[in-house]
């Protein structure tokens, strides 16, 4: 796991820490939530196309890529219509992340927050 290098002025750090406490969240978890919401807001009306790494393909996608490669080797493949290709089992696999995939990253951030991330009354009072 890596840390984000994001220096903050002391006063902003202190305010965010107090907001987290007000929300009854651990500071780290509150930052994860802000990041997740920020991604969603930032890409609400923007486009994003980022190449996938080989390790980011699911098993299903990897299997489909192999199947597609075999299908593409068949005689007359280039003469088939899109519907004919699909009927033979061809499914396009994106080799990039796009803005519609943001929810996947949001969910990863949210998963970092455990179910006991809320502060106890005693922690809020301290």
Give a verbal description of the structure.
With 126 residues, this protein is mainly alpha-helical. The chain has two domains: 8-47 and 100-126, no CATH class; 53-93, no CATH class. It is built from six helices and two strands, in the order H-H-E-H-H-E-H-H. The protein has helices spanning 10-22, 27-42, 59-72, 82-87, 102-111, 121-125; strands at 49-51, 96-98. The chain is elongated, with a radius of gyration of 22 Å. The model has no long low-confidence stretch (mean pLDDT 87).
Question: How many domains, in number, for the residues?
Answer: 2
Judging from the principal axes of the Cα atoms, what is the shape?
Answer: elongated
Structural category: mainly alpha
Tally of alpha and pi helices: 6
Got a strand count?
A: 2
Radius of gyration: 22 Å
- Helices and strands, in order, run as HHEHHEHH
What fraction, in percent, of the residue positions are helical?
Answer: 40-55%
- The N- and C-terminal alpha carbons lie at a distance of 30 Å
Mean pLDDT: 87
The biggest beta sheet, please?
Answer: 2 strands, antiparallel
Low-pLDDT parts are none
Strand order of the largest sheet: 1-2
Work out the strand percent: under 5%
């Amino acid at each position: 796991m890596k840390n984000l290098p994001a220096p903050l002025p002391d006063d902003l750090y202190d305010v965010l820490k107090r907001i987290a406490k007000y929300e009854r969240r651990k500071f780290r978890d509150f930052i994860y939530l802000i990041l997740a919401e920020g991604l969603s807001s930032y890409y609400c009306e923007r486009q994003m196309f980022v190449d996938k790494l080989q390790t980011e393909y699911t098993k299903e996608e990897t299997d489909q890529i192999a199947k597609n490669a075999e299908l593409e080797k068949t005689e007359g493949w280039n003469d088939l219509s899109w519907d004919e290709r699909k009927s033979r089992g061809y499914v396009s696999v994106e080799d990039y992340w796009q803005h519609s995939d943001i929810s996947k990253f949001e969910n990863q951030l949210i998963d970092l927050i455990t179910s006991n991330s809320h502060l106890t009354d005693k922690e809020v009072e301290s």
